[in-house]
Amino acid sequence: MNNSNPSSLINILQKLLYLMIFEAILFLPAMGQEKPPKPISVTVNTLQHLNFGTIIPNGPSGGTVTVQSNGIRTSSGEIILPFVGTYCSPAIFELTALRGTLITILTPPTILSGNHGGALNLTLGIPSTGSQFVVRSTTTEIFIGGTLTIQSLIANPAGFYSGTFTVTFNQN
Question: Quick one: which H or E segment has residue 169?
Answer without folding.
Answer: strand 168-171
